[in-house]
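so im writing up the methods section and need the Histidine--tRNA ligase record in one place, dumping it here so i stop losing it
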Amino acid sequence: MKYQRPKGTNDIIPGESEKWQFVEKIARQVFKKYRYQEIRTPIFENFEVFSRTSGETSDIVTKEMYDFYDKGQRHITLRPEGTAGVVRAYVENKLYGPEIQRPFKIYYLGPMFRYERPQSGRLRQFHQIGVEAFGVDNPTLDVEVMAMALDLLQSMGLKNVKLVLNTLGDQTSRAAYHQALVDYLQPYADQLSKDSQIRLKKNPLRVLDSKDPQDQAIVKQAPQITDYLTSAAAEHFYQVKDRLNALKIDFEIDPTMVRGLDYYNHTIFEIMSDSKAFGGKWTTVCAGGRYNGLVEQLGGPEVPGIGFALGVERLLLVLAVAGNSQQLANQLDVYVVGIGQATDATALQLVQAIRQAGLTADRDYLNRKPKGQFKAANRQAARFTFTIGETELANQVVKVKNMTTSQEITVDLTAALTNFGTVWQKITEKRE
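--- predicted struct ---
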């Protein structure tokens, strides 16, 4: 039998995993600047956590969730997105108490699962980086979250991105718009796709999110929610736009944007890239919005929230096309070349001294000739080689070669073994 990974999954092997580590490292650095702390929730949750929050008519619930009954006949779901599980943890652990600072800011990283047709940047097991901020219903926080998302993508090397936003209003706005949308769509009911015919009865806003070409043609002339906003909802959206302008952040308004999950309200946004990874078409790489009311749905108090998430696989596709491979590379600081059996123990000591100084180091373990060892150093993109032969060992020196400039110098072996940090500083100063 030939064993293979399940369809729609990937093995993240050495050479690729370093790129993931780069993305995760940058994310943690950016989130730290904005005072977000990490949360880790289970990969699986009770089915109701997602069915209740994501919406019974959303594609995630109706088509894409991996759900099953465990041995105790509990209905379990592999998490299809991060927010609902984080909200469940927020409520269960009473992170809304009076002693907790508001906004309560957290971030997460990890795998998600959706049963859909695998394609480039869209897998059945995929990974998200996301943030959530609870406890503040202030348009300024909406803007800070969007600014952080842009900061995150730009810190990773993405340049040509655009921010697109809309508002879904408050509950009163939604109710008025709901009726107007039903009145508009009802005459076209027979022409809608089967999915949208169901959505029209249960949640008409879902029709706006349809990918069916016939549905898209129908909703082009549909009324827009911005025409049905209450004064409070309109003011919230006005202040969001005003604060974005204050930060000189360019944005576009898309009145047809609704997002794919039912818990959103007020501000929603997407950050898009026209990367060649997607054929030059503007494609979403990061998305989010406000979800006041979601905490209450899962049994908590009335606490507003806002957040975003991005798909790591999709982001890496964009970074690769953008030419960031050098930045993502796992470059080796030093490769130690040992020539002759007599140098083996000293080469081992030198490798360990380099590592203890906080640098990366490697050496040969296969008794290869010098030519083979230098080839191995090149394959690993080593910045320097340190060579010890029997002559060097006798003279207590090490030959150092800059692999970029081919410049060679000699350093004292004892100094390298006992105080490598000082030796390295001198070597890099010579390089500069």
